[in-house]
Amino acid sequence: MPGPLANRFHDETVATITEYPFQCTRICPVIEPTRQDNNQQTLPPRPKTPKRRSGVADLLSPWEEFRRVIPLVSLKSLIGSPRPAVPEVAVLLCTMQAQHFLAEQLNSIATQSHASWSIWASDDGSDDHTHAILEYYQSHWGEDRISIHAGPAEGSTANFLSLSCRADIDADYFAYADQDDIWESDKLERAVEWLRSVPPEVPALYGSRTLLVDARNQHIGYSPLFERSPSFRNALVQSIAGGNTMVFNKAARDLLRQAGENITAVTHDWWAYMLVTGCGGQVHYDPYPTVRYRQHGNNQFGSNVSLRAHLERAHALLRGRFRGWVDSNVRALQGVKHMMTPENQQVLDDFVSVRQRWLGARLAGLRRTGIFRQTRLGNLGLITAALISRL
User: What is the model's pLDDT at position 82?
Assistant: First the structure.
């Protein structure tokens, strides 16, 4: 008679929700076939394959492994408790294929020292686990903390502008959020503190410097430090604060809604800077970094501090890409010119005229308009663009 059954083990891979460098495994016994007296082999019955779960239920087991790397921030202390008696901030979060870094961003929002916030997530048709992750957080935090919506699927600028113009979003302040960054814990607190100093009827926009990190959240540098005051003359040729740092009041949001979502501006953050300054609002650039701006292979726009970034910008200038950006922005501004202050209407007209003049008049006219970039190197690039008809 044969001895006791011999057991061996093997790993069976279970579906994961991200491509982080780990796998969720379970150990299943593999039983060797037994030999009977008639020398015929019989195999143990094959276990039935369980039906695949979908949605949140399908994520529960893999998520336990995921939380070992990025723990879920629990909001048990917030759910069921009254909101703090401080201004409400609507966080406008746009996503597209965001599964790699989305959890860290959501956690950083949850741990803000300014605790009165709600997330409006607009997903542009992701086919990874982005939507499922959002649903998982929603199941823990509640629909009053995070709501999920379908974006227009026309790119990030259209997604952010669509979300900015939604009539059903009501809050005291509004904050743009990218899917792959990490907010410092006092980001909203610093922004709200400045915004409350501005009369509510005045459009106000807060932005800040950023701390640059790599894909593993390791510090690699800072974004450029700008020292000249924000203004429409600067906004025409430069966006100084990333949308991932921007927070704005109701008056600024009303401008965005009045301008509409179907505009030709290059990016939502540059558009917000031009619109608020052009219409006589206030813009504050905080030199204190409030966001850990993640640099990775899928950034739509990365930082501009490295030599490679400067060379790429110079190459784009020579190819006429900068001129194309300015063309798009000017067309958008022409559509809202009636909303702008008389002074800035004149600045816009002068800028349009200067771009069409011959070389000598173009350089002299650019100087007279007072249009500028924030750094010496940037202004050198601006003059070069005017010299070679790329402005």
Answer: 60
> In the block, which residue shows the tokens 């308009």?
369
The two structure tokens encoding residue 360: 């000598």
Give the residue with greater pLDDT, 137 vs 14.
Answer: 137
Chain segment 366-381, per-residue pLDDT in tens: 999 999 999 999 999 9
Give me the residue spans of the domains in the chain.
74-295, 310-387
Q: 144: pLDDT confidence band, cut at 50, 70 and 90?
A: very high
Q: Are 194 and 273 spatial neighbours (Cβ–Cβ below 8 Å)? A: no
pLDDT for 219-265, tens place per residue?
999 999 999 999 999 999 999 999 999 999 999 999 999 999 999 99
pTM reported for the whole predicted model: 0.80
Query: Between the ranges 59-73, 334-348, 354-368, where is the mean pLDDT highest?
Result: 334-348
CATH number listed for the domain at residues 74-295: 3.90.550.10
Q: Which residue has the tokens 């950034």?
A: 299
337 neighbors 352 (Cβ within 8 angstroms): no
> CB of 142 within 8 A of CB of 79?
yes
Partners of 204 in beta bridges = 282
